[in-house]
Structure formats: structure tokens, C-alpha cells
């Protein structure tokens, strides 16, 4: 998804349109990027971040999940009193919040803006057990965040991301994605689970990574530890991708399949 820095209203409207398109195509679970509302480390956090629950961003995402009858996972920037968090939600088809995650392994250059989360959770759903993390949580030393979610029973880990490279990055010379393949693969294989990392596209105009570009490359890794789906690279490479996911811990009454958007 193209995320425009500091443009909360535009991003929410664009997300609603993409959610509708994916749901109409049959998606059961839809995943949006990290910091979808404002962009990662954008200074607009101070003026435009809102509460979870009760804030406009949260309410509109809940309404989108309810109206389209899907599970919805999205990153958003949260205000909690005097603190701000790089957060993500998992919302069920009735519009109820199942998981509210605050990023634990925030990059040091984000510490001036975001407070750090202090807990991990999984949600038991008719599709299976779902865990939630955000971007750099996935490469915390020893993969402790994703492994903890595996120990908690997750069959799939959803991870809103904002994967960025320098403006002059040459993807032909240095293909993007090795960091995530190297960190998702061992956890997926060891716990026989799925990991879906979903990145945005677009330029970063302000903040510590000013001038960098987010380039998509969304990645789904399956229980063998191998990539199952990889998104296109590019600052303009917005696209909707679909993947069929089988969760081993899905209840017997289901058909064993869930369609996820990455």
C-alpha cells in the first residue's frame, strides 16, 4: 500500500478502498503496513496520532472490518496520554479488537518518538491462532519476539512493516529481502508456522530516514521455512497480493484454508 506521510485522512480512505477490493476478491484476512495512518517516524505523530480504542483511525478500521466481514490487521500510530506508540491491531469481522500490539523492538532512531511495548499476545480465532508483531520485532536478537509467539501457539504471525532503502539503492545489484528471509525462515520452520510481513511503498519525506524510500517486497514464509510469496520492489510498486494459507491448528470444522492479503 502507498502510505503518504502525515496524510492520515488520505491514507485511511485509501486503505478503505483497498480493503473493499481485497474483500470483494475473497480475502478472509487483510494485512496493511506499519504506521499506515501517518508513516513511520513522521513528525506529524505529535499532532495526528489518536487513541486505541476511541480514536478516528481505530474506529474506521473497525468499521471497515465489520462492513467487509473480514479479519483486518493494520499498523497505526497511537496516542496514549502523553506517550505515542508504533502500534498494530487485529480486528475481527464483527469489528471487535482481538489484538493490540505495541512494537517492542523499535529501532533506536525511533525511540525519540515512540514508547516501547511491554507484552505479546495471540488470538484464538475460527481460522486458527494468530500472533501479531511489527517490522523490526521480527529480527530482535535470537528472533525472540516471533519465537515467543510460536511458543504461545501461533499458527501464523502477521507483521505490518515499513521496509526502506536509501534513495539510490540498486535492487539489481543488491536484491532486497535477505534480512527478512533469514529471520522468518528459521522460526517458521522450527514452529511449523506462517509469517506474513507486509510493507508499504512511498517516499519518507521527514524524520530520521528522510530521503529514503519504502519499496514493498512483502514476504510470506511457510512452515518449511521457505518463501511462499514475495511482492514486487519499488517506491511505486503498490499492489494487492493473495496467498492461500493452511493452518495446522485450525479447528476441524473448517476446510483448512484461509485467504490472506499481503
N-to-C SSE string, H for helix and E for strand? HEHHEEEEEHEEHEEEEEEE
Tell me the quaternary state.
Answer: single chain
- The Rg value, from CA coordinates, equals 17 Å
Helix percentage range: 10-25%
Largest sheet: 6 strands, mixed
CATH-scheme architecture: 4-Layer Sandwich
Query: Average pLDDT value?
Result: 95
CATH homolog superfamily? Carbon-nitrogen hydrolase
Poorly predicted sequence stretches spanning 5 or more consecutive residues: 250-262
Secondary structure elements and their pairing?
Layout: H1 8-24, E1 29-31, H2 45-48, H3 56-68, E2 71-80, E3 83-91, E4 97-102, E5 122-125, E6 128-132, H4 144-151, E7 156-161, E8 164-165, H5 178-191, E9 194-199, E10 201-203, E11 213-215, E12 219-221, E13 227-230, E14 242-245, E15 258-261
Parallel strand pairs: 1-2, 1-15, 6-7, 7-9
Antiparallel strand pairs: 2-3, 3-4, 5-6, 8-11, 9-12, 10-11, 12-13, 14-15
Characterize the structure shown:
- This protein is an alpha/beta fold and 262 residues long.
- The chain has one domain (8-261): Carbon-nitrogen hydrolase (Nitrilase/N-carbamoyl-D-aminoacid amidohydrolase, 4-Layer Sandwich).
- Helices cover 21% and strands 27% of the residues.
- It contains 5 helices and 15 strands.
- A hairpin with a 5-residue loop joins β3 and β4 (97-102).
- α4 runs parallel beside α5.
- The radius of gyration is 17 Å and the shape is globular.
Short key terms for the protein model shown above:
27% strand; single chain; disordered C terminus; alpha/beta; 21% helix; six-stranded mixed sheet; Nitrilase/N-carbamoyl-D-aminoacid amidohydrolase; 262 residues
